[in-house]
Amino acid sequence: MAGVVALLTVAAGLGVRAGAARVGLGPEVAKYAGDALYTVLVQALVVLAAPRIRPPVAAAVALAFSWAVEFAQLSEVPAELSRRSVVARLVLGSTFNAPDLLWYAVGAAAAWAVHGWLRARRRTGAY
């Protein structure tokens, strides 16, 4: 299930980026939605790697990773790596932006809620 969530998250991120401009939303909507979805994706990958992990622990790991990446942007390393690689730019970003920290927390909270809901459904045999 975590793999499906990861793929759906990537699709949602691409959809938000493409769709925000089409419906007249500013670029900041796509940017901050992308920040939240980044943490959702990280949590899905954490759950994929450790399927028995509890939702709050997975959310904390995903949030810590997202914040670590953001704070790393205070150095020149991510920007330099991003200039050399599209993958590095997607994973590490390049420029520190304090509001991103809030949106990572929003993504972690959403992922925690969905993870908890899916886990409860699995326990009750709903899927």
Q: Could you give a quick summary of the protein structure above?
A:
InterPro entries: DUF2809. This protein is mainly alpha-helical.
Walk me through what this model shows.
This protein is mainly alpha-helical and 127 residues long. The chain has one domain (2-124). The protein has helices at 2-22, 27-49, 55-72, 77-84, 86-92, 99-124. Helix 2 (27-49) crosses helix 3 and helix 2 packs across helix 6 (99-124). The longest helix is centred in the C-terminal third of the chain and has 26 residues, at 99-124. It starts with a helix and ends with a helix. It comes from Streptomyces chrestomyceticus JCM 4735. Keywords: Membrane, Transmembrane, Transmembrane helix. The chain crosses the membrane at residues 101-118. It holds the Pfam family DUF2809.
Keywords:
single chain; 127 residues; mainly alpha; 6 helices; 81% helix; globular
Q: What is the number of helices?
A: 6
What is the CA–CA distance across the termini?
Answer: 10 Å
Biggest sheet features: none
Cα-atom Rg, whole angstroms? 15 Å
What is the H-and-E element order? HHHHHH
Strand content: under 5%
SSE-based structural type: mainly alpha
User: How many β-strand runs?
Assistant: 0
Helical content band: over 70%
Shape: globular
Kindly state the mean pLDDT as a whole number?
92
Total domain count: 1
Q: Name the poorly predicted regions.
A: none
